[in-house]
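Reopening: structure tokens for the flavin mononucleotide complex, inputs below.
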Amino acid sequence: MKLIVYNGSGRGKSGNTALLLDSFLKGFTSVEGNTFEMHILMHTSKMDTFTAAFGEAENVLLAFPMYTDMVPGIVKKFIETLEPYCGRQGNPSMAYMIHCGFPEGIQLRALEAYLEKLSRHLGSRHVGTILKGNSEGVRYTPPEKLPQQLIRFEVLGKAYGQTGELDKDILSTLSQPERLPGWVATIFRLLSFTNFGNSGWNEELKKNGAYQNRFARPDGEDK
Ligand SMILES: Cc1cc2nc3c(=O)[nH]c(=O)nc-3n(C[C@H](O)[C@H](O)[C@H](O)COP(=O)(O)O)c2cc1C
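Re-run output (same inputs, fresh job):
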């Protein structure tokens, strides 16, 4: 089985998407005869190559992080290039891997529905969507401290490589917790009155010389 893989992270090869994909593909390629071809959507100048690869593919895995409750711009751009393939006979099967910073699986459910609709528009067999919350810490954590999570991705990849299907039990484990218990949500609500939630982001803004623009509204009414 040959799989065409798209990595839609703005961090390309150094992001959490790449790490989760590594484990999944380790399992996938452990099945004899399985191969994959990786496309990093961040390299937008190669968009024509990405679209053409879709046209030739039998099986596709589109993996990306959630950005602002939706898809990163580079993923949206790629999806829009697929319009000529809508309803074409022989389109590839579609599997998706989506993940996000917030820990609750429910954060990703609307996006999951959007992707199911995308498969329907394309007329592709919808294999399913891998959902994982709390992914921002993945790249900061040494692999030996992440055994359970990464092993689940590997086992999922192997089973997919054998059957062409995503194991429903593993999918349901990876998307947990669906919702945080009420008392945890209350603690987060209280913390939102402090600088706790912003400190990491503020550090990034300062590092990139953008701190003074943190309240900018480039598309807002007061532009
Ligand atoms: C611009 C941007 C927007 C984001 N929006 C969300 C969001 O709406 N909800 C969420 O849970 N996480 C959000 N995140 C967190 C990412 O989904 C998370 O950090 C993910 O692990 C990044 O994956 P990557 O390293 O492969 O890019 C956002 C991150 C960025 C950079």
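The chain has a mean pLDDT of 94. Residues 9-11, 15-17, 65-69, 99-102, 107, 135-136 surround flavin mononucleotide (CB under 6 Å). Marking as resolved unless the reporter disagrees.
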